[in-house]
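Reproducibility note. Readers wishing to regenerate the assembly model reported in the main text can use the exact inputs given here. Chain order matters: entities are listed in the order in which they were concatenated for prediction.
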Amino acid sequence: MLHHDIGSLDRLPVYDRLAEHFDVLLPEHPGYGQSERPVWMRSVRDLAVLYRWMLADAGIERATLLGLGFGGWIAAEMATMAPRDLNRLILVGAMGLKPPEGDILDQALLSHIDYARAGFHDQKAFDAVYGADPSTDQLVAWDICREMNFRIAWKPYMYSQTLPHLLGGVRAPALLVWGEHDRVVPIGAAHRYVAALPDARLELVADCGHCVDMERPEELARLVISFAGAA
Amino acid sequence: MHIMYFTEQPMSAYPAEEGLKFGATALMFSNRHFDPVAGSRLYNEYIEQYRLAEAVGFDGIMLNEHHNAPFCMQAKANIFASILAAITERVKIVILGNPLPLAENPVRLAEELAMIDMISKGRLVSGFVRGGGQEQLAAGVNPAYNRERFEEAHDLIIRTWTEHGPFRWEGTHYQHRVVNPWALPLQKPHPRIWIPGVISRETVIWAARHRYPYIALNTTIEQTQRIWKLYDDTAAEVGFEGGPAYHGYLKQVHVAETDEKALENARQFTWMQGEFTGLAHPVWSTPAGYSSPDNRRGFVEFSVGRGSSPRRRPSFDEQIENNMIIAGKPETVIAKLRHVMEQTRPGILSLWANDGFMTHQDSMTCIRLFGQEVLPAIRAFAKELDLKSPFEADTPISLDYSTDLRPQHAAAE
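Running the prediction on these inputs yields the following structure tokens for the assembly.
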């Protein structure tokens, strides 16, 4: 599982739920937390290569990639690099492609709280995860993530101009999951993914924003278990 | 002492109530509120003010640039520097400064500055800045690489000025197949470089390590003294003695015929809520990665309204009280400036003389009174206090061109 551009809490209900069915790896993107910043890194593709390296070190040959938002972009890049070796590809509100209409929400213009809140359709769901008034430690954590986002995805902002031309080689079946009220990545990006990937379908999640994993964890777990568990 | 005239070139002809309604007067505050007819008038008034500043005896004219905001009409300092190069005869043209990280092609900047230096017959002082946070967003330049780009662009410009081309530059942020511009500065080895700044320690240290004078921009007396201490300590480490010739100070100082009139006008220094960059938006003014990691906690707290701005200014009355803003008739201003000069001992003094909605006529009166009454008095103080400018002290232009270094080794070594 590859986390969002706002990092991730250590524990979330969706992680526990999925861990009942799978061996779940939850890496923290290098530089996105307390880890040493990879100062050399310049692109999301660099990050994808690092995760390929991590899978190789772990001896995992047929992984299912579940990418959340920004993590979806990383997963999509990983899928294009070795098209035959994935089990399943699941992209949830994935960044990485330029939406045909509208733009990916620009965090550079929003406060850390406003940006994180924009990921939720129901603000009560945000409050339940982060608290109504997130701590200053959380703000600092978000700022560290934001700095890394800028370092590797500043321009073009949160998409690749070459990725759509490379997705055609991906052999793994892919599932796109999108909150029907995603205000961060316009739904048009989902349709572009479905069109570019040879074997992909889209599931919309009702009453849900960008962060399906935190807002509708049961629904996401159900979709993932039925898609990846069927393999 | 080197005494400069400065104005932000305020775009005063904008509907202030719209700015208040919008909640910010920068970056995203729509330029539908920009009036080019008023802009044309104001630019030409500023040219008249600069001419008068030279005529009444200022040593230099300080220029700067900002983007997407009414507090400063200069979108490119080099344009006004070019104008001044042609229409003035004597004053130093002090750009404080070109925001290097915003440049995609520093060689082009080096060329422009060389042209200005030649046209002005060697009167250019070429300051460099990182650019404000929102300037990075306005220019679409990655704030996370701001300092790296600043340093690399600086190195490239210096090399362009001092090493004959053609040469090739393969840097981290800049790559140039051929560096060989057919425009080189008149001043040798290159124009003086002064570094202005507000709060970032790294920049003070960087300036001292290059032996470039540091210009404290409208800082409090205490901040200024702390900056000089840091500068001079760093200078001692690298092997030279700091002191006034390396210390510049920008102050908001307005003179009028009477104290009452001056105080009324000086309120304009707080015309956009008193924030240095107008009614700033806390998120836009400090994008992630732009500021030092030491300031991260302070800025994120400020960005959600939990803490006060690290750049916060006190009320107008307090600023008058503690000499952050100096305003009055000439005698009043002379007395207060003397006090500030004794406390801070700058060798370079920049007088930010007008702002906001001050009229052209009042600005002209202010400049005239400076020349007739204030400048002679503060020159006399400067002499008495031995406050020499870099020109008077004939300091080396940089550490690289110093022949008198005696580095102090840290005790641990």
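We highlight two features of this model. Chain A touches chain B through 19 residues (CB under 8 Å). The two ends of chain A are 17 Å apart (CA to CA).
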